[in-house]
Predict the 3D structure of the following.
Amino acid sequence: MQIGIVGLPHCGKSTLFQTITKTHLDTSELAMTEAHQAVIKVPDTRLDKLTEIFQPKKKTNAAIEFVDMIGLQKGDSGSAKFTGNFLSKVKTSDALIQVVRLFENELIPHPNGSINMMRDIETFETEFLISDLTIIEKRIENLKKQILKLNDDQLRRELSVLEKCYNYLHEEKPLRYVDLPKEEMQLLRSYQLLTIKPMLIALNLNESQISDRSFGKDVEGYMDILVKKKIGHNTKAVAFYGKIEIELSEFSDDEAEMFMKDYGISESALNRLIAEAYSLLGLQSFFTVGEDECRAWTIKKGVNAQEAAGEIHSDFYKKFIRAEVVHHDDFIKYGSFAKAKEQGAWRLEGKEYIVKDGDIIAIRHS
């Protein structure tokens, strides 16, 4: 899974990337024209507990790739210019984090001259809408020509879906706000449309705003505005303190905990962002355990036992017989598979069983 981090110049985008990936870039690296990327382990206290119990040779966390999207250029007016190169890079991501600057700094002026949350969010939304409209418009033209020649029902169905999406976009409605049927989403996937991607809006504040409760300047105030105007289907928001968080990323776990306590921060940016990203993408984790390895596997919510088995190994999907299942919470509660079985918490499930977040699974196969 790849999550792209986007934002206007001087918004703290690279700061967020460095914070969550613990990748510290020098000035020359920040000036590079290529995207920075890093794969991070997904923190999971459940996996940590299982590792303590089984003492395996190896522990494998689920992983997410974060990409700091570079390529926005400065336009003639001083504002950001969205290039085709930048937009093509963004298309490869499964979800996007848009960093929005809410802090003042006279030494580093905002590219648009002032702090304005909704303006900055809508700048990206507008560019993404235009990009999607251009792609869909061209495809609609081509489909109409093909239908005249081939008289194909499949092409007609595709045309119908694209015309519906075109109308939504023309109404300035991002496609992630629209509840599209699963088969239509499958059809649209090949187009790599930007407004269909789940979006996490990351509000970057400074340390003075932690306790600043003046109107419009506190976190709740910003969140209230977003909830009323933008937060909805496949769109969420989270606040973080860029300058503080990047310092935290350089500390040991114990030092970071004390530092957060001093500032009244209950959870790191990494944990909050991963939790929100999983929620946005409809993801969850199941576990496999043993003496050799304890591992977290990432799957979509709604996946059945046979499909989950296929994530472990393709042969497990083809030769699936049964899944031995016990939920993590039940296993910890009863202390062993044997006791969980006695209490009815351990069970055999068929291929249609819908895997739950936190299930511990062993696959029986031929």
